[in-house]
Amino acid sequence: MAGGASSRIYEGAGLKLMLPSWLVIGIFLLAPVAMMAVYSFLTKEFRGGVIWEFSLAAYDQFFFDRGLFGDEAPTIEWTYIGIFWRSIWQAGLATLACLLIGFPTAWFIATRDPKTRSIWLFLVTIPYWVNLLIRTVSMKFLIRDTGPLNEFLLALGVIDEPLGLINTNFAVQLGLFYSYLPFMVLPIYAAVERYDFSLSEAAADLYSGTWTTLRLVILPVVKPGIVAGCILVFVPSLGAFLAPDLLGGAKTFMIGSLIEEQFKGSAGNWPFGAAASMILLTIVMCVLLVYARNQNKGETR
Amino acid sequence: MTSPDIAVAVDRVIKRYGSVTALHGVSLDIRENEFFTLLGPSGCGKTTLLRAIAGFEDVTEGRILLKGQDLTGLPPHKRPVNTVFQQYALFPHMTVTENVMFGLLRKGWSRPEAERRVRDVLHLVQLSDFAARKPGQMSGGQQQRVALARALAPRPEVLLLDEPLSALDLKLRQAVRMELKALQRETGIAFIFVTHDQEEALTMSDRIAVMSAGRVQQVGSPREIYEAPVNRFVADFIGETNLLDVAVQSISAGQANVLLPGNHPFTCPAAAVVEPGAGHLSVRPERISLCPEDQGHLRATVTGHTYLGTDIQLHVVLVDGETMSVRLQNAETTLVPDTGSVIGLKLETGAARLLAD
Known about the structure:
The structure holds 2 protein chains of 2 kinds.
Chain A (H helix, E strand, L loop, with lengths): L3 H36 L3 E2 L5 E2 L5 H7 E2 L9 E2 L1 H33 L3 H12 L6 H12 L4 H9 L12 H26 L3 H8 L4 H30 L2 H6 L7 H9 L6 H30 L2
Antiparallel strand pairs in A: 1-2, 3-4
Helix pairs in contact in A: 1-12, 2-12, 3-7, 3-9, 7-9, 8-9, 9-12, 11-12
Chain B lengths: L5 E12 L2 E12 L3 E5 L6 H9 L6 E6 L2 E2 L10 E4 L11 H11 L4 H14 L15 H13 L5 E5 L7 H18 L2 E6 L2 H7 L2 E6 L2 E6 L1 H6 L4 H6 L4 E11 L2 E6 L3 E6 L7 E7 L4 E4 L6 E10 L3 E8 L4 E7 L12 E6 L4 E4 L2
Parallel strand pairs in B: 3-8, 3-9, 6-7, 7-8
Antiparallel strand pairs in B: 1-2, 1-4, 4-5, 9-10, 11-12, 11-14, 12-13, 14-20, 15-19, 16-17, 16-19, 17-18
Helix pairs in contact in B: 2-3, 2-4, 3-4
Keywords (chain B): ATP-binding, Cell membrane, Membrane, Nucleotide-binding, Translocase, Transport
Protein name (chain B): Spermidine/putrescine import ATP-binding protein PotA
GO cellular component, one term (chain B): ATP-binding cassette (ABC) transporter complex
C-alpha cells in the first residue's frame, strides 16, 4: 500500500468498503433513534400510536405537573424525575457491587497461568449461554419465599421465617449484579493482563506497601479497564427492565419499566415513552462523554 | 564477620525453585563505594542474586547482610536499597517529577524537602528540562536516566542495576557506561550491576564476579579476570581465547612446564590448583605474533582470515588438528599470510595461562 497508485486505489475503494458498516449503523442505530426523537415531539393517540402533530406535551408531562385537567399553574413533577433518580442510584449501586466483586475476580484470572486463564474466562461467560429473561426468572425462583434458598436456610434452622428477599431493592440489585458482572470482569481482565508487574516491584522497591501500591500504581494504570467495565455495567443497568419487573415490586420501578409500559398494549403513551427514552439517552451520552474525555487523556501520555 | 567497609555480604546463599537450584551457596563481599558487576550468561543466577538482595526473592538458605544488618525476611519496601530495572518500570501515569518523588514521599520525606531532592537528582542526570514529561514522551535513553534518578533519589545504601543498558542501542550504551561510572564515583555508594555483556563489565567495574550455573567462578578486577582467569569458563566467557590441550610436566611456584602440540616445551603461569597431567592452556589471540615456521612455539597452517575492521582474524590449524585464531592489528604494514602457507606462532609473555578445568 506504500505505492502512490495502489494507495489511491484503496482510497477510492475505501468509501465502498465502508458502506456495509454505515448501512448497519444507519438502519439499526441512527434510524430508530431518529424515529424516537421525532415521536417524542408528536401528539399521543389514545390506543397507542401517534398523531402527526407537533407537540411538547410528552416533555411537559415528564417535567411539569399542571393538575388533573391541565389548567393549573405548572409545578415540577417529581414522579418521573424520582424514577430516574432511583434508577441512576440502583444502577450505580449495581455497578459498585460488580466492581467490588469483579476487580478481584479479574485480578485472579489475569494472574493465573496463561494456560488456565482461558478456562476461567470461559467459566465467567457460561451464564451467557442462557437467555437473560430465563436467568432473571430463575433468580426469582431461587430467592422467593418458598424457593430453595429460603427452604434450605429454614431447614437448617438458620432462620425462622423466609428472608423476604423478593420484591425488594436488594433483589433488583442482585439481579442487575448477576446479569452484568461479566461486563465488569472482562475489560478489567484485559487491562490487568497487560499490566506490567515490574511496576509493582518498582513500587515495593521504592518503599511502598501492598495497599499503597494498589492505590497509587495498580489502580491508576488499569483505570481504563475499570472505567470501561463501569460503563458497560452502568448503562445497561440504567435501562434494564427485566430485573426490576421480575425481582422488584412497585416501589422499585425503574426507567426501563416506565418506558416499556408506554409501548405495551393499548394503555401506552408513545410520545411520552419516546421522550423518556430521549432523556435516558441524554444521560447515557453524558456518561459516555466523560468516558471519552478520560480515554483521550489516557492516550496523550 | 563483616568488616566495616563491606556494603553487602552475601553469605552462602542457596536458592531453589522446586527441584531446580538457581544459586548453589554463593558467597560474596561487596565493598563500600565500589562498582561491582555480576557477570554471566543468561540463567547463571546473576539476576536471581540481585533480586534476592532487593528482596523480590526469598533465599532458601544463607543470609544477605547490608552493612552488617541481616536482611532475611525483610520485604522489599523495608530494604534501604533501590533498583534500576531492566525495562525501567517507570510509572506511566506519573510525570518524571512524580516518578522520582515517589520513593521519597513513601519514605516519609516532607514535600518541600522531596521537591528539592528531585530537582538535585534530575540535575545530576541532566533531565531538569524534562521534569513535567511523562515516560511515554521520552526516548529510551532519557527513560533510563529517569529510572536512575528515581532509584538514586531516596539515597539508597546500595544501588542495584539489572541490565539497565540492554534496551539501549550500541552508541548510546557506550556513552552511558562512562556516565554510570562517573555517577557511581559522584554518589559514593556501591553499585551492583548485573550484565551478560563482558565488554560492559570490563569497562565499568572495579570488581567483577563471573557467575555460571548458579556458582561464582571468579571474583577480581577486570584485569585479573581477563589476564588471570581461573578456569576454562572464565577464560572463554571473558574476551576471546584459544583453548589448547597440553601435557603438564611439572609445576612450581605458580609456573608450569608444559609440552605444546608439536612437543615444544613451554613455561607459563598456572592457575593455583592445576596438577601435573593433561591440562588446558588458554592463549589470547591478540598476544600471538607471527614468525617464520621454525622459530615459533607452534607451527601452524593458515586456513583463512576474517576482516574485522580494527583487526584481522587469522584462522590456523595446528599439527595435531586443533584450530586456533590469531588477531593481527590492522595496520598499513600488516601482512596477511596466504591460505595454505605454513607459519610459526610465537606466544608473547602473558599470552598463555594454564587452567584447572
